[in-house]
Amino acid sequence: MCAGRCIWLFLIFCTVIFSVSAQKTKSQLQKEKQENIEKIQEVEKIIGETSTKKKNSLGELSALNQRIRVQESLITSIKGEVNFLDSEIIENNDIINALEDDLEKLKKEYISMLFVAQKVNNSTTRLTFLFSAKSFDQLIMRLRYMEQYGQTRKLQADQIVKVQGELSGHVKEIRTRREEKNKLLNQVVTENDNLSNLKKKQGSLVRSLEREEKKLKKDLAETKKSVARLDKLIEDLIREEMERAARAKAGDSESLSNSFEENRNKFTWPVSSGFVSQKFGRQNHPVLKGIVQQNNGVNIQTKENEKVKSIFDGEVRRVAFIQGLGSTVIIKHGEYLTVYAGLKEVFVRTGQKVITNQEIGKIFSNTEGVSELRFQIFKNMTALDPQAWLKNM
Questions:
Q1: Number of domains, the chain
Q2: Range 297-320 average pLDDT
Q3: What confidence tens digit (pLDDT) does each residue in 221-270 have?
Q4: Which has more confidence, 10 or 222?
Q5: Cα separation of 297 and 284, whole Å?
Q6: Which of 8-22, 32-46, 68-82, 325-339 has the lowest mean pLDDT?
Q7: CA of 132: how far to CAs of 119, 136, 144, in Å?
Q8: Residue 202 sits in the same domain as residue 242
Q9: Nearest Cα to 315, choosing from 345, 296, 342, 335?
Q10: What is the rounded distance in angstroms from the CA atom of residue 275 to the CA atom of residue 46?
Q11: Most buried of 4, 5, 290, 368 (most Cβ within 10 A)?
């Protein structure tokens, strides 16, 4: 009887521990799924803006590629929930089987106790048992035994009721989990269909853009000229700042540099919404074969009229207009510089002190409806990968 109760208590303990850890993991999966749904809505808005201005643009392709990536991530998170529910169902099945075994043992023990109790409750047997005691102390002990035996029998009955209740609860739980799993499996089918349609659209868009090779090469040549002007602006400014730093005392500059470094991987993004449309370093052109582009930062495609913010405290060292890219703001943070290119409006001026998350301008949208920020981080002459410094978005 004691062994049966211990098994039952152990199972309840395991169930509680499992449900606490499971709830946390399940909550994370559901949060991840919700974040992906929100990202999909965000990207859909960007796709809508680009396709309204011009059908079949590189900006639309970039947004569509991101849409596919998020769709794949959404499917992965839903499948993760399904796998987790499978684990819960297996766990519940194991507990149900163990509880059923334990319940069977408890019932057998109870039946045996009832059989003994029936004998003991016979008045002649009861009196014979009591008065056959050899001493008064033994008589008292036998009375206590009979009382304790009655209490134990009642406890055993209560235990059976508790185990039956727990068993019923787990059966209901497993039904709920199975219904939840079936809904998620239907979601997976739907989202896989959506992914298939997106990939068809992607293929059609790429083929359409490939037919515009001449225009794409012309646009690329113009963009390279604009980027070269930006690179020259940054290079000249860095040289000026390094010469200035050599003449001045380190002091505040060193302190700000250290503070900037301490925030690596913690900086908020310079825009509230969007995605990386072109990564740092050498990247293959999304359509033109054999063409590689060098990027000293990241391009962030965002929504029309999006506000651009400084990622950290600093001082505005340059505000300039660059043909083909729009306005550029460069902010100094000790030895570090952050560059924000692709603005149509600027809210700050050269020499102005700015703080973290202060709005410095509004994003520029080109003739194809693409709203894209070129964001760069430099430490002296070295270009750094912004994605290694910004929080995951």
A1: 2
A2: 96
A3: 999 999 999 999 999 999 998 888 777 665 567 788 889 999 999 999 99
A4: 222
A5: 15
A6: 8-22
A7: 16, 10, 15
A8: no
A9: 335
A10: 10
A11: 4
| Residue recorded with tokens 């995951």 | 392
Q: Are both 198 and 270 inside the same structural domain?
A: no
Instruction: Answer yes or no: do 256 and 190 share one domain.
Output: no
Tokens of 171: 């059966």
Q: Which of 288, 276, 286 is nearest to 391 (CA)?
A: 276
Type of residue numbered 392: N
Residue 172 within any structural domain of the chain: yes
Asked whether the beta carbons of 84 and 25 are under 8 A apart, the reply is yes
Q: Which of 311, 290, 318 is nearest to 389 (CA)?
A: 311
Phi, psi torsion values for 204, nearest 5 degrees: -65, -40
In this structure, are 101 and 204 located in the same domain? yes
- Unique residue bearing structure tokens 């059908």: 55
List, for residues 13-39, the tens digit of each pLDDT value: 444 444 444 445 778 888 888 888 888
Short-list 51, 73, 54, 60, CA closest to 287 = 60
How many other β-carbons are positioned within 10 Å of the β-carbon of residue 362? 19
Amino acid sitting at position 179? E
Using alpha carbons, select from 87, 89, 104 the residue that is nearest to residue 7: 104
Domain boundary among 210, 225, 250: 210
Could you tell me which of 386, 111, 90 has the C-alpha nearest to residue 263?
A: 386
Q: What's the CA gap between 364 and 321, in Å, rounded?
A: 12
Cβ-contact 266, 291 below 8 angstroms: no
Single-letter code of the amino acid located at 244: R
Maximum C-alpha span of the chain = 116
Q: What are phi and psi of 259, to 5 degrees?
A: -65, -40
Dihedral sign, Cα of residue 266, residue 340, residue 51, residue 210: negative
Contact 63, 165 (CB under 8 A): no
Report yes or no on 104 lying in a domain: yes
Tell me the whole-structure pTM to 2 decimals: 0.74
351-368 residue pLDDT tens: 999 999 999 999 999 888
